[in-house]
Amino acid sequence: MKRGRLAAAWHRLDDWVTAAQARIGERARAVDRRVPKTEQFKGGAHGERVTARVGSLLGFAFLICFVTGLLSHLIQHPPEWFFWPSRPVWLYRVTQGAHVLSGIAAIPLLLAKLWSVYPKLFERPLVRSVPHAVERLSILVLSGAAFFELSSGLLNVAQNYPWNFYFPQVHYAVAWVAIGSVFVHVAVKLPVIRRALTRQPRPAQPPGPGLSRRGFLATTGIATGVAVLATAGATVPALRNISGLSWRSDKGTQKLPVNRTAVAAQVTRTARDPGWRLSVVTPAGTREFSLAELRSLPQTTVDLPIACVEGWSQMATWRGISFADLLRAAGSSPGVDVRVSSLEKTGLYGVSVLPGEHTADPLTLLALELNGEVLNLDHGYPCRVIAPSRPGVLQTKWVAKLEVL
């Protein structure tokens, strides 16, 4: 009797397993029917030549974005061997503008590239060989890293940070993953790329549905150009009036945008303190300057751009004491590295180091005025650093102390 019950239970389990296998098989076949097939995509947008051309442009955009981003990182976190010149004064403005604009251009190019290979992403079997597995993995890593870099970069441009990590370090680390996966992908696909870019066009065939090859390439180029043109005014003043999506302009207090206000930096009381003194520490000793004493020193007026890591830049007229004159007045010499400390105690950029290349440049100022007016509190009153070819985050505001290193 007991053996009969066990046999019945076994048969019921066997029937359940058989039915489950049938249901899973049917679902798998239903999914397979919905998976795009290569033969369904016969339009010109899905050929090797299109993929190779769009991919080449995308790779070029990624390379520009990576190199200029690497430069920005090295300027902000310089190793001992790194050198960044103070001239031309617009150098950082151009490199960082190119970084952001190449990232903007990469967005439509990436979407076009993925669309051109869309049917291949669902080919069966998923893995046919070791090189094919490497190719698939490189595509997965490249797509994930690229989407992260471009989306987080856009949010950084908008100064919107819906995450808990420190953006510059994570963005920098993932950039290496992205560029590494680009090189791996190119290495694996190099024979295909060479064949697609060098072979003679095939005889004309009846066009498939959708855009032709030329139409798709033209559409991609137009979309990329519109995206760049719509945002380039943040960096290129001549385009400012036609860049509808430009995120920064000359509108702001004293005709200059403000990324971090005095209230956010918690310096409103200390910056307005009548007892404020600038402390300059040199090997010869420490000297303190009141605001009136700083104004009594020789004043220099310069036109310099301020360029931020978000990609916007703006030319402005600054007036103050050149670092060369200030160091001499304090008993030191130009051309030395100087640590600059702000009244701000809570920010990530309350302390910066001004290299000797810049302290020797007569255009590097401890600025007291901006565009013909005394510095607004949000722009760094009572004094701030303005140096040629430096990121805005290193143009320290609300300066309290200078130390010769």
Report on the architecture of this protein.
α2 packs antiparallel against α3. The protein is built from 11 helices and 10 strands. It is 48% helix and 13% strand. A 5-stranded mixed β-sheet has the order 2-1-10-5-6. The chain is α+β, with helices and mostly antiparallel strands and 405 residues long. The chain starts with a helix and ends with a strand.
Helix and strand arrangement:
Layout: H1 2-34, H2 48-76, H3 91-116, H4 130-157, H5 167-198, H6 213-231, H7 262-265, H8 268-272, E1 278-282, E2 285-289, H9 291-296, E3 300-307, E4 313-322, H10 323-329, E5 338-342, E6 351-354, H11 356-359, E7 365-370, E8 373-374, E9 384-386, E10 399-404
